[in-house]
């Protein structure tokens, strides 16, 4: 643990927030269209309708806000899932929740031609819920009940199944293939601010609920028998965590598509900085998740300029070595 005292943890959290705000400013300024800080300020204080000002207001600002919210949500969801399952590899991507939400949205697009924000949101939440419940049930079947290994295998199986169904649907509608494939890779590019606003109440509930149960998660992390002995209603806490994960992961997929690895990488980095107290882990993970996705999105603009790499590809490049490292070391989620 890097930061041991509460004052150091608070200072670290404030420093992370400042870094996040700086990256949001960088996200607004940097890109294919050449702009600078003064142009960004003028776009909001003295807008002259120029192409640069329009891009800053209508494209880059929503992109920065979406990357921040989605990164924070996926990181917090990863913390919740790793604590609930005692699985260091648990995350919305690895356990198939992102794939389930993504499949539901593709069904809406390809079979029902749904293009409304409300329709996307409802189906993303439904798909996330179905995937989460299915993985939990499958992972609990058999001798020994729910174990980290069985949960990981069940999640991988469900993710593969939903991905296969998604690819099959795309064959039926070639006209939407390019649009949907770019979305499925995970991207914050070209997303409208209205889409973020529509899911923000659900994501906000997910953030607030996570903070409210953070103290009880410390007790749950001690083990179920100990938690019950201390009077904790473990069944209620598990259900609450499941609902919060569905809100956070479903909302994120509805906005930006299924972005992987954020929920794996950030919780482990966070614990190495502030320890295992979820009252610090959850807010710090949220800020670090936003930082990771903002940085990945900025890098994605320059990797193959003038073309852009979907941010989900960048997070995979960052997260895959980390995933292998965790799997080989067998770190225990706290």
UniProtKB/TrEMBL annotation:
It comes from Neobacillus rhizophilus. The keyword Transcription regulation does not apply. GO terms for biological process: siderophore-iron import into cell. InterPro entries: ABC_BtuC-like, ABC_transptr_permease_BtuC. Belongs to the binding-protein-dependent transport system permease family. FecCD subfamily. The keyword Membrane applies. One of its GO terms (molecular function) is transmembrane transporter activity. This is Iron ABC transporter permease. PANTHER family: FERRIC ENTEROBACTIN TRANSPORT SYSTEM PERMEASE PROTEIN, SIDEROPHORE TRANSPORT SYSTEM PERMEASE PROTEIN YFIZ-RELATED. The chain crosses the membrane at residues 12-32, 64-84, 90-112, 119-139, 151-172, 193-215, 235-268, 280-303, 309-327. It comes from the Bacteria.
């Amino acid at each position: 643990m890097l930061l041991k005292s509460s004052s150091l943890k608070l200072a670290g959290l404030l420093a992370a927030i400042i870094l996040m705000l700086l990256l949001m400013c960088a996200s607004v300024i940097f890109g294919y269209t050449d702009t600078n800080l003064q142009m960004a300020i003028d776009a909001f204080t003295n807008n002259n309708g120029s192409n640069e000002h329009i891009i800053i207001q209508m494209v880059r600002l929503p992109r920065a806000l979406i990357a921040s919210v989605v990164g924070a949500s996926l990181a917090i969801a990863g913390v919740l899932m790793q604590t609930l399952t005692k699985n260091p590899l648990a995350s919305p991507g690895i356990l198939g929740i992102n794939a389930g939400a993504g499949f539901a949205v593709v069904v809406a697009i390809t079979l029902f031609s749904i293009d409304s924000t409300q329709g996307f949101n409802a189906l993303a939440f439904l798909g996330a819920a179905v995937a989460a419940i299915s993985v939990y049930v499958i992972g609990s079947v058999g001798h020994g009940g729910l174990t980290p290994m069985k949960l990981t295998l069940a999640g991988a199986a469900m993710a593969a199944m939903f991905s296969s169904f998604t690819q099959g649907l795309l064959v039926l509608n070639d006209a939407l293939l390019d649009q949907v494939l770019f979305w499925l890779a995970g991207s914050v590019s070209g997303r409208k601010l209205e889409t973020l606003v529509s899911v923000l109440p659900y994501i906000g509930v997910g953030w607030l609920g996570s903070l409210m149960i953070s103290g009880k998660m410390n007790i749950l992390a001690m083990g179920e028998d100990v938690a019950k002995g201390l009077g904790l209603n473990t069944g209620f806490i598990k259900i609450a965590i499941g609902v919060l994960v569905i809100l956070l992961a479903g909302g994120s997929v509805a906005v930006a598509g299924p972005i992987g690895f954020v929920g794996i990488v950030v919780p482990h980095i966070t614990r190495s900085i502030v320890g295992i107290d979820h009252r610090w882990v959850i807010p710090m993970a949220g800020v670090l998740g936003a930082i990771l996705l903002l940085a990945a999105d900025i890098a994605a603009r320059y990797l193959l300029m003038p073309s852009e790499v979907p941010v989900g590809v960048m997070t995979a490049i960052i997260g895959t070595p980390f995933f292998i490292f965790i799997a080989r070391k067998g770190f225990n989620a706290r």
